Amino acid sequence: MNRKKNPLLEKLNAGKNVYGTCITSTGPMWPAAIKSVGLDFVFIDTEHIPLGRTELALLCQLFTANDISPVVRIPSPDPYLACQAIDAGATGIVAPYLELKSQLVELAGAVKFRPLKGELLAQYMDGSKPLSSRLQEYVSDYNAANMCIANIESVPAMEKLDELLDTAGLDAVFIGPHDLSVSLDLAEQYDHPDFEAAVRTIIRKTRAKGRHIGIHFSLEPERQVKWMKEGANIIVHSFDIALFLQRLRHDMHIIKTAAGDISTAAPAETIVV
Q1: SS3 of residue 108 by DSSP
Q2: Which CATH number, 3.40.109.10, 1.20.1440.130, 3.40.50.10680, 3.20.20.60, labels domain 7-240?
Q3: What's the whole-model pTM score?
Q4: CA triplet 71, 245, 35: central angle to 5 degrees?
Q5: CA-CA distance, 184 to 195, in Å (whole number)?
Q6: Model confidence pLDDT, tens digit, residues 74-98
Q7: Which residues, including other chains, have CB under 8 Å from residue 154's CB and lie 6 or more apart?
């Protein structure tokens, strides 16, 4: 069958970093704009953005046509939603707030072992019934373009991290810094030693298991560089609205200051990641 491979996985497995950003707008100009920056993927967040299946499919096809891999976060760790996103054209599936091994097994089954379903899939995933070599080859080829990513963003998930990372079919982990900081009772305290220790632990354990890992920040790029040095190899930097606001605040501050309409104090930035 020889289906298309996943360019993100190929890069990551070759020891390279991959770069992307989050897009919340459905405007048709974005795919070409993202391509001009030289990014590898776009993060489409249907957990927080009201996107229908038709809109999602259109976005995925537009980004793919511009050689940008669409990575989609589904609203919940639901295998049926994962299948819908893949059918729309997503090459990577991110499931939010995963805390249970059973949730991740179901997700991996939908993303990496389609079109197996029902009892056959369950028996294969729990190891009670192996596939024939012919069917194993078919399933591997059928899902070669799919990437399975778990959002780790809570203390319970951290406590079960070793077990979660052993799930067959898991390719990567995304750290959700905002939810993780809240779960640690350190809301938005991204420089707190306990928050940084938690992120380091997740990165270290994930890379030790041979999985890839990223963290999504919407603040200064130095944070991305910091965690890359710790082992992160998937860079999800900011999102369209945050970048627009940062630049607009900067430009309007210069214009209004020159006109004498505001003081010279720098504009404050309050962006939740």
Answers
A1: helix
A2: 3.20.20.60
A3: 0.91
A4: 40
A5: 7
A6: 999 999 999 999 999 999 999 999 9
A7: 97, 99, 179, 180, 183
